[in-house]
Amino acid sequence: MSSATPDHPPQPPTSAGAEPPAADRAYQHVKAGLLDGTYPDGHLLSEGEVATALNMSRTPVREAFLRLQTEGFLRLYPKRGALVVPVTPPKPAPCWRPAWPWRASRSTSSPPKAPRR
Fold this sequence. Notes:
By secondary structure, the chain is of the alpha+beta class. Helix content is 31%, strand content 9%. The chain has three helices and three strands. The chain has helices at 22-36, 47-54, 58-70; strands at residues 44-45, 74-77, 81-84. Strands 1-3-2 form a three-stranded antiparallel sheet. Helix 1 packs across helix 3 and helix 2 (47-54) packs across helix 3 (58-70). The N and C termini lie far apart (82 Å).
């Protein structure tokens, strides 16, 4: 039995060696193409193009596109297709520290004064 996730309801058990559902095959195909560069950033995919390549109807491809849009890989445009969204790596956190560790409580006060002689 397959595991359920918030995005996908549990699937009925399949017989051993059975092919996965068409929507899952379309999803895996398109996601692999996105990750290996077959579909570069800015490429406009059509449901028909993917359906023809996989020899299936457009309905499972549409389902795959919707899943990939929720994951941030595609942006869907009705009657046009799916645009491959550029994937940008997250910005690293700064690895420096300020020379003087001012705190919020000190932000309004001045630094301590040196004793007078």
